[in-house]
Structure prediction request, 223 residues.
Amino acid sequence: MNQDIFQETIAYQFKRSKLLEQALTHRSYSSNLNNERLEFLGDSILNLVISRYIYLARPDASEGELSRMRASLVNEEALAQVARDIDLGEYINLGGGELKSGGSRRASILSDTMEAIFGAIYLDSGFSQAQQTILFLYDEYLRKLPDAEALKDPKTRLQEYLQSQQIELPKYNVSKTTGKSHDQTFTVTCIIDALKLNTSGRGSSRKKAEQSAADSALHRLNR
Prediction:
């Protein structure tokens, strides 16, 4: 794909095109010159930019509330959605195996590459430009910054509800795992013995499956 179009999309023109090429190169394509180090750098820059923004935007929010807001914007799926908004997957250099398995659509690859882009812009033009690009790409999501209470994950909300009712906390058990090691699906059961409640959830990781099972339990409890 034409990288000029990509640069127009992110409203930034690289001075050093090799930095952009590196940021777009997955380790499956090149073991020597890939985007892993840029990803490390971009992750820190993204966290700082988003932290500063929400700190100023929500002056009354507590540390915990700020942390939840930030996490909702910089987690893997949030980053992957920003990447999808700009069709980033079309520009990533992937090895044959990753191409065949749909790597250009995988959230982990999209989010890592998005961070690498931020790191590359920082090296190319400094922090101010990296911040400008991040705020530009995140504009829609920052304008709809959610309420901190609504950002509590299902496991936390379920735990807090059960504690408020003095009910023993749930148990989570993996009941099934399918798929190959790089693309597994987990099924987890959430068991609340005191309420004789048993729900299940699926996800690409045990954590996601547990959250799904907890969410199902909350719906059953009308919470």
Q: What stands out?
A: The longest strand covers residues 171-178.
